[in-house]
Design a protein that fits this description.
heteropentamer; A alpha+beta (about 525); B alpha/beta (about 300); C mainly alpha (about 325); D alpha/beta (about 270); E mainly alpha (about 290); B: about 300 residues; alpha/beta; Rossmann fold; eight-stranded mixed sheet; four-stranded antiparallel sheet; 13 helices; about 40% helix; about 25% strand; E: about 290 residues; mainly alpha; 14 helices; binds adenosine-5'-triphosphate; binds magnesium ion; ATP-binding (chain B)
């Protein structure tokens, strides 16, 4: 360990070269240790504990009863890493700033806001356009930047922010080369007493195999990477210190376009019996085992929530519709027969009950190999059941466009995990988003569901919310607009030889994944303790 | 003498850039008569091939014109041109490159017949090929199916001649047709050309640097130097009484077994090679007549 | 001189055409390049957000010819735009970083394999028909027939994974700061060994075959025979007379081979994760980092042109016959 | 009688083929006396060059000089020389002008270097001395010393031919082999060069083995002539005898097929 | 052709090629497995049931290998043919016609020669997306003809100087006939070398593009096998059979083709020939029948 203190070596992004860019608004271009570690969120919600808030820069927040405003109170005595004080003005400045430069608003939050109001030096109130019970989740996603630095930046979109002034625990860049950079303690960090790590070191590693070899050699303390056959290739190298823990993350589901241009396919896709039979023909376990190396978690919840949102689950769903989430080749075939999907023209493939042919193009982006494998495995059983399904692998961009437009036939689609099942539902089934987002790819709408979801954001009452969500789940499960397959894992590998305090399966205190989509990584960093030098 | 079938009238051809022109042909005039052989001799680079190419219309003259059957050959008139082309054939120097190695002898002789005597039936063509081969003294049966590489140089050259004859030409240009052949075979080819000329009333232009063979086949001779014809006339007259210093130089340089090196030592001309060359390279527009059918261009004193 | 000027003019024209192709390529492809570019960047941006970003990346909604001239102007002023993936790094700088590695890897590999191949070829030709010749010829055929990707994978398997003699990737140990010290240089050499060996293996055969054939053709030349008749030693004739002259056509084949070398180094870099131009291009293609792809093609073309010109130059230097012409 | 400079005895040379061999030279024996101009004539492919190559042992596979052949130069059997001896022997004793002398200069080296090469290969010599010697040699063939800095392509064919001859004389060889040295040149240049050789020969005293298929020329320049036919030496005699009273049928035929420049012109029939 | 059969290198090459060809044709007879069905557990090592083991997905490697030969051969020969035809036609036209036609063709040829080929292909394939073998073959054909034009053109230039072309012109043969019947037959060996060389190039390039992930994953081909194996980190997890099988198949095919190419070169250029006579010669020298 360095004379300067202990150093934690981590990999949160894979790249062939490092570019000095710590612009927290630059989603694709900033270094992945910018958010959370440099720019601390107001609050970190712990998804693993039903969204329990961990207050960071804010010491509290309060949602108005009419759900049309939310007020955050900052901690006392907060300072930027250059010693300037951090107060409500900086928050106000940040939100004005992203309104002025819409390109900065990478979470599209300003669209939800009516105005941002300074109550006092530590208090800020956000006025919303619509009542929204979940707004806190969104607002904390936007980093707060220091006014005294950013006010002078002429073009914040291209600004590289090479010498960041931040609020988080690690703000000082002590070394930067295209191959490695180091980020050390913020001298003015408010929570310094909880911070035992002195520096973060980010070596440049280009791909999974390289991360694997660094992990296997024991040079990395913290990583998030897909590693094939992890028990053999990583853990076995040093079983005492090499560990991993995969938590369920984004949902991967099979989707069909209800508006697909081929009218014959459309007939089948809009028939719930067809969708249910199809769901029964998907061998989820095999897909998980083979395409996913056993890492993902099967999602056989017809309401598409699964393990990730287990605390929200409505037991009725499983009782009524559970069988439609289970792989059962015979049952699937029988269901197709029963619904009249038989081979009418004798070409060896099943046709619509009216005799028109079904020819499905199963689209998956080129290069997404685990998905390609999953599709190939799915096609095997679908073909066995007599359906005419072929895979195509267009460019990701083309695929995205097709999903947005609903012009594809069948595909796999992923939906990021969120704090609340409201988010997957609203993202997938909000008719206002049709043609705008690939998450609405099924182009399936249900007025009753929309209504329930709208009510959901406008109630503060927990029981009422639960009732609404239970009802929503039943509707989704009954109609099966998307066919869940699995939740992909969030990869997390760690090494206990230099630091302890890691979250793991025994102590699932929060999600410890170090990727930049997980603010809870900040909590993990603060929990780490260096192993005393011998 | 009858009318010339083909004549070059003051034809010039210049190569190279303007600041460094190479006169490949300089005011060249001569005529070819049916049944007569004209030999064109000169050292390498003197413009002999250029003259042949001008006749073949591979080069267009920079100056002067080509006369065919007494009329100048224009550009536009394609009928006359086609007529001209089909009455003219060439026998090349290199028997190895003048036949396509990938075709049989039969093919080589069949093509001109197909192109120029369209009316023939297959049987008639066959007969014509046999006749051609017999004419050049080759055994048709044996030769027809062979490929060029299976033949000797002399045989190939005969095929070239047969192919030229297949078109029924009136003029044949032979550019050093025997220089690549062995001594013992040369004679046969020369005799053949002579016979053809006599039998078919061909006008023959025989290009060579070997004055002895020129003497053997030709009726008339022209000596060329630096693109210019420096002396011309009936072959015996020119060779017996050469007037132009370059002609003399050429003659004295020709190997002659009757004269040992020791005997002739440096003949006059050989002692003055460079001088003669330099002078002969200059333009000499004047023509001096020595006797009937013997002319030369006197060099400036 | 005129010869070189003519070549120079050609290269300039070629560069212009390449730049033009480069400009139109993405615009001729199905789909809006900007759309594709940002869609694959993978963000979940709103349309407003996207439009704002487009402008900052300099996508002007001007008529095509204006776009074209703006593009040409920026190309000739050395401005290739900024990378999307590595924003805001200028493409030139990104490529500059990669260029060093590729030039090093390819340059040294080319020099080694050219020298080695030429020597083997000379030797084989000189001892034509003997055992050495057969061994060299067969080896050369084999080496030139195996795809670079196969060789790199097999190398990686044997030396990287099975014997563990060499690292599986990267140009140097990332934990060592780049500096002119032995530690760093040895790390660079150590990491460069496998890709280098791969390239040398792939390239040597071709050079050996070319050289052997040229030599054999040359050995029949009269001046070679005369050199022997003059009583020069065999080595002298072989190297000073034959090889030097056989080198000429080999050098010109080198000009054409540069394209192949570039291709070979591309795959090798990808397999060994070597941070050179090839790998950068590959990564850029995967990420649809348009400015980088365009800049990359242009730089590679320029590199080809420059090396062709260098070959032309050396040709002129080696062959006195061209000096005046 | 003085010992011959070159004495070829029972020379047999094969070109080894993959199945059968081609006997290119069959049992050839002849002598060349010092200072003699010996002509070797015959049609293309009869084996003339093969013999010439054998004398300096310049053959490469698949040529094979059969055991039992002897090539004696100055009494030593060339075929028994070791590699190093052979290297020293070449050019010092036998120099050679090749069939296409135009191409026997290395196109990428200056004329001077090509002189220097040979001088250095046969003994230590400084560059300056080599240059002086080269200048001297070029004078023999009437070429200006400035030419030393030229490249071959900058000289005309005849000039190159003369330069080669000058290089041949660099070591005062006893024998100069000329393999059709003038076929590519026109008659005037050819004559010029041969006369020069003749003069030099008389001045320096080397013997010449002159190979050509131009019989007229051959008779003019040679003291003695050998006629070859398909690998065999069918007739050897002094030039005038061969010309006026040929013995062998083939020789007679050769003469018959030669058109004459002077005198009566008769039609001769020759085989094809 | 008969010369080709006498040449040892050519024979070896032809045998290799024939083996691969037969394997490709009779693929269904050689393996009971489908190349696109899971028939085993992931990454089973070679065994009696699976001669070359299984892939990450549980496909039989051997089955994929034999079926994959079809694609490699088809793309190789298809693209090779296309490259050769374009190269030969343009080369002959440029070389024979000369003048402006030549200038234009020559300019574009040199142009294409200086644009780095593989990167260009990579970009093209990426833009096109999901490049099926057919698409790959077509873009290869359209972008890789330059070398062929260059050699064909220069050879045509020298053949055009030969007198038989002149005499054909003098006989009044139309120029298409001269190009087709007089010049082309003399280019056969050049065209042959160009063809085989292009086939090698196409096979290698197809595999490379697919390996880099620009191919169509539905395809069963050696390049896709490489790609899948690489993606499955076959080397890290020790499944060498997954990666090395297509590697060796490609090397084998490349070797076969290169041998043929080399042999054509030897036959076209007699100086390069070594053959039996040199062996005999060496033997004869050794037993003292003669020397140099
Ligand atoms: N196409 C051309 N371009 C430039 N110069 C040419 C061309 N053709 C011929 N010349 C020049 O014109 C002169 C005459 O050449 P030509 O070929 O007619 O000579 P020749 O008498 O036939 O010579 P040879 O006996 O060697 O065949 C030469 O100096 C030659 O270099
Ligand atoms: N490398 C070789 N392999 C096989 N045969 C050869 C080889 N070199 C020459 N020959 C043959 O040997 C014979 C004699 O060749 P050589 O070169 O000695 O003839 P030459 O009398 O010098 O003919 P030319 O007058 O054409 O030079 C020829 O028939 C030739 O075909
Ligand atoms: Mg000529
Ligand atoms: Mg010879």
């Amino acid at each position: 360990q360095d004379a300067s203190g202990n150093v934690l070596t981590l990999v949160s992004e894979q790249t062939t070269t490092f570019v000095r860019n710590f612009n927290p608004f630059g989603q694709t271009s900033a270094r992945y240790t910018t958010l959370d570690f440099m720019y601390e969120p107001l609050v970190v919600f712990n998804r693993l504990k039903a969204n329990e808030p961990n207050f960071r820069l804010a010491e509290s927040y309060e949602l108005a009863d009419d759900l049309k405003s939310i007020t955050f109170v900052l901690r006392e005595g907060l300072m930027w890493s250059d010693g300037e004080s951090l107060d409500a003005d900086d928050v106000i400045f940040t939100y004005d700033y992203i309104t002025k430069f819409p390109a900065l608003d990478f979470i599209s939050v300003s669209a939800l806001l009516e105005s941002v109001e300074k109550v006092d030096d530590r208090t800020v109130t956000f006025h919303l356009k619509e009542p929204n019970s979940l707004i806190a989740n969104t607002i904390v996603g936007m980093p707060i930047v220091p006014e005294h630095v950013w006010a002078d930046v002429a073009d914040p979109v291209t600004f590289a922010n090479e010498n960041p002034v931040g609020s988080g625990p690690m703000t000082e860049i002590t070394r930067f080369t295209p191959q490695v950079y180091e980020q050390c303690r913020n001298p003015h960090y408010w929570d310094a007493e909880n911070l035992k790590v002195d520096c973060l070191r980010m070596p440049q590693l280009a791909d999974n195999p390289q991360v694997l070899s660094a992990l296997a050699e024991g040079t990395l303390d913290w990583a998030t990477s897909f590693i094939p056959d992890i028990d053999n290739t990583f853990v076995a190298k040093d079983p005492e210190h090499h560990h991993y823990w995969f938590t369920p993350s984004s949902l991967v589901s099979l989707q069909m376009s209800m508006t697909t241009p081929d009218e014959n396919n459309r007939k089948a896709f809009t028939d719930v019996n067809f969708r249910r039979a199809l769901s029964q023909l998907i061998d989820r376990q095999t897909i998980v085992d083979i395409a996913g190396y056993g890492y993902p978690l099967v999602n056989d919840d017809p309401a598409a929530l699964g393990e990730l949102y287990a605390s929200f689950a409505n037991p009725e769903v499983d009782a009524q519709f559970g069988q439609y989430g289970q792989f059962d080749l015979e049952a699937g075939i029988a269901a197709l027969d029963a619904a009249g999907y038989v081979d009418a023209d004798g070409d060896g493939f099943r046709d619509n009950p009216d005799g028109t042919p079904i020819t499905i193009d199963f689209m998956v982006p080129n290069g997404w190999t685990d998905w390609i494998d999953a599709v190939q495995i799915s096609i095997e059983s679908l073909s066995e059941a007599g359906l005419n399904v072929k895979m195509s692998t267009p460019e990701a961009a083309v695929w995205t466009q097709n999903l947005i437009d609903g012009t594809y036939s069948m595909t796999l689609n992923a939906l990021a995990s969120a704090a609340n099942p409201y988010f997957p539902y609203i993202r997938s089934f909000n008719p206002n988003d049709f043609g705008k987002s690939r998450f609405t790819a099924p182009h399936w709408e249900n007025a009753e569901l929309s209504d329930l979801l709208a009510q959901y954001t406008q109630t503060k009452d927990a029981d009422e919310a639960k009732a609404l969500m239970d009802q929503a789940q039943l509707i989704v499960a009954e109609n099966l607009p998307i066919v869940p397959i699995y939740n992909s894992p969030a990869f997390y590998q760690y090494n206990t030889s230099r630091f302890t305090g890691w979250a793991d399966a025994e102590n699932p205190k929060y999600s410890p994944v170090v990727s930049n989509a997980n603010p809870a990584r900040l909590l993990q960093l603060l929990d780490l303790d260096p192993v005393a030098a011998e | 003498m009858s009318d010339p079938i083909l004549a070059l009238d003051n034809v010039s051809k210049v190569f190279g850039r303007a600041d460094k022109p190479v006169y490949a042909a300089r005011a060249v005039s001569f005529a070819l008569y049916p049944g007569r052989t004209l030999a064109l001799v000169g050292e390498s680079g003197s413009g002999k091939t250029t003259a042949a190419r001008l006749i073949m219309r591979e080069y267009t003259p920079d100056e002067g014109r080509l006369m065919f059957r007494g009329a100048p050959l224009g550009k536009a008139d394609s009928k006359a041109l086609r007529d001209y082309r089909s009455s003219l054939q060439m026998v090349f120097q290199d028997p190895f490159s003048s036949l396509n190695p990938t075709h049989t002898i039969r093919y080589h002789l069949e093509r001109p017949l197909k192109l120029h005597q369209r009316g023939l039936t297959a049987a008639q063509r066959q007969a014509a090929i046999v006749e051609l081969l017999e004419r050049v003294k080759l055994d048709p049966k044996l030769i027809m199916p062979k490929f060029p590489h299976e033949l000797s140089g002399g045989q190939r050259q005969r095929i070239s001649i047969a192919r030229a004859l297949a078109v029924n030409p009136q003029v044949i240009v032979a550019d050093e047709p025997t220089s690549m052949l062995d001594v013992s075979v040369r004679q046969g080819i020369l005799n053949l050309l002579n016979d053809m000329k006599a039998e078919l009333k061909l006008a023959l232009l025989y290009i060579t640097h070997d004055i002895a063979t020129a003497r053997y086949v030709a009726d008339d001779i022209m000596v060329m130097y630096a693109g210019q014809i420096v002396e011309w006339g009936a072959v015996d007259k020119v060779l017996d009484d050469p007037r132009h210093p370059y002609t003399r130089l050429l003659l004295s340089a020709v190997p002659d077994p009757d004269r040992r090196f020791d005997d002739i030592r440096f003949a006059d001309e050989l002692g003055r090679i460079e001088e003669i060359r330099q002078q002969a390279a200059l333009a000499q527009p004047e023509v001096s007549q020595v006797g009937e059918n013997h002319f030369f261009r006197p060099m400036p004193a | 001189m005129a010869f070189l000027l003519r070549r120079l003019a050609f290269y300039l024209a070629a560069f212009l055409v390449a730049a033009t192709i480069n400009f139109f390529l993405p615009r001729l492809m199905p789909g809006d390049p900007i759309q594709i570019m940002f869609a694959s960047a993978g963000s979940e941006l709103s349309l407003e957000n996207l439009n704002a970003l487009k402008l900052t990346f300099g996508f002007i909604d001007a008529p095509l010819h204006e776009q074209y001239f703006a593009y040409l102007k920026s190309v000739f002023t050395g401005d290739l735009g900024r990378s999307i993936k590595y924003f805001p790094l200028p493409v030139t700088e990104l490529l500059g970083r990669a260029l060093i590695w590729t030039v090093g890897l390819m340059g040294i590999a080319t020099v080694i394999s050219f020298t080695l191949g030429s020597f083997l070829g000379i030797f084989a030709a000189w001892r034509r028909g003997r055992a050495v010749d057969s061994v060299i010829s067969l080896g050369a055929i084999f080496s030139s027939s195996v795809p670079a990707v196969v060789v790199s994978l097999i190398m990686l398997f044997i030396f990287g994974y099975t014997l563990r003699w060499f690292p599986n990737g990267y140009a140097a140990n990332p934990l060592i700061d780049p500096a002119w010290n032995w530690q760093y240089i040895s790390s660079v050499l150590y990491h460069g060994t496998l890709p280098m060996l791969t390239l040398v293996f792939v390239l040597t055969g071709g050079f050996a075959v070319t050289m052997r054939n040229n030599m054999i053709n040359l050995l029949g030349e009269d001046y070679i025979v005369m050199a022997r008749a003059k009583g020069l030693s065999d080595n002298n004739v072989m190297l000073w007379y034959a090889a030097r002259n056989a080198l000429l056509p080999t050098v010109s084949s080198l000009a054409i081979a540069i394209g192949t070398i570039l291709g070979g180094s591309l795959v090798t870099e990808v397999v060994f994760n070597y941070p050179g131009l090839g790998n950068t291009l590959y990564q850029a293609i995967i990420a649809r980092d348009y400015p980088v792809i365009q800049g990359q093609l242009l730089i590679m073309t320029a590199a080809m042109l420059v090396s062709n010109f260098v070959v032309d130059l050396s040709y002129v230097l080696l062959d006195p016959r061209l000096k005046k012409a | 009688m003085t010992t011959p400079v070159l004495s070829v005895r029972n020379l047999n040379i094969d070109y080894v083929g993959s199945e059968a061999d081609f006997h290119a030279v069959k049992n050839v024996s002849f002598d060349i006396a010092p200072g003699e101009f010996f002509g070797l004539a015959g049609e293309s492919g009869c084996g003339k060059s093969t013999i010439a190559f054998a004398v300096s042992r310049l053959h490469r596979p698949p040529a094979l000089i059969r055991t039992g052949s002897e090539i004696l130069v100055g009494g030593r059997n060339v075929l028994d020389l070791s590699d190093e001896e052979l290297r020293k022997f070449r050019w010092r004793e036998v120099a050679m002008v090749f069939q296409s002398a135009m191409n026997s200069l290395n196109p990428v080296l200056t004329i001077e270097t090509q002189f220097y090469d040979v001088l250095r290969a046969h003994g230590p010599i400084s560059r300056a001395d080599a240059r002086a010697r080269a200048t001297e040699l070029l004078k023999l063939v009437d070429i200006a010393p400035e030419r030393l800095d030229s490249y071959p392509h900058q000289c005309s064919g005849g000039m190159r031919q003369r330069i080669v001859i000058a290089i041949c004389l660099a070591l005062n060889p006893k024998l100069l082999i000329m393999d059709e040295p003038t076929t590519a040149l026109d008659v005037v240049v050819q004559r010029e060069i041969l006369q020069r050789i003749d003069v030099l020969r008389k001045k320096l005293g080397f013997a010449v083995l002159f190979i050509t298929h131009d019989l007229g020329l051959m008779v003019q320049v040679s003291d003695r002539i050998g006629i070859m036919l398909e690998g065999e030496l069918v007739e050897v005699n002094d030039a005038q005898t061969i010309y006026r009273r040929p013995q062998h049928a083939y020789t007679k035929k050769l003469w018959a097929s030669m058109p004459k420049l002077r005198g009566e012109q008769t039609r001769v029939e020759a085989s094809s | 052709m008969s010369q080709l059969l006498q040449n040892k290198k050519a024979m070896t090459g032809l045998v290799i090629l024939t083996i691969i060809l037969l394997v490709a044709i009779f693929a269904p007879l050689l393996t009971e497995y489908s190349p696109v069905k899971r028939v085993g557990r992931p990454h089973q090592p070679p065994s009696w049931d699976h001669w070359l083991g299984t892939t990450r997905l549980g496909h039989d490697v051997f089955a994929r290998l034999v079926y994959g030969a079809r694609v490699s051969l088809a793309v190789g020969f298809g693209a090779g043919l296309m490259i050769t035809i374009i190269g030969t036609v343009l080369g002959i036209i440029a070389g024979y016609k000369g003048g402006v036609v030549d200038e234009v063709i020559n300019f574009f040829t040199n142009m294409v020669l200086v644009v780095p080929n593989l990167p260009l292909l990579l970009v093209l394939a990426a833009f096109i997306g999901q490049a099926s073998p057919l698409v790959i073959a077509i873009i290869l054909g359209l972008t890789s003809w330059a070398w062929g034009v260059r050699v064909t053109r220069s050879e045509t230039l020298s053949i055009r100087q030969r007198d038989f072309v002149k005499s054909a012109e003098m006989l009044g043969e139309p120029s298409w006939r001269i190009m087709l019947f007089e010049i082309f037959p003399n280019l056969i060996s050049i065209v042959g070398i160009n063809f085989i060389g292009s086939v090698i190039f196409a096979v290698i390039t197809e595999a490379t593009l697919e390996f880099l992930g620009l191919g169509d994953p539905n395809t069963v081909s050696w390049g896709i096998m490489l790609y899948n194996a690489q993606n499955a980190a076959a080397l890290s997890v020790g499944a060498w059979w997954d990666l090395l099988s297509p590697c060796f198949a490609l090397a084998f095919l490349g070797l076969g083709l290169a041998l043929i190419n080399f042999a054509i070169d030897e036959i076209a250029n007699p100086r390069l020939r070594t053959g039996g006579m040199l062996n005999r010669w060496t033997r004869m020298v050794r037993i003292g029948e003669g020397k140099l």
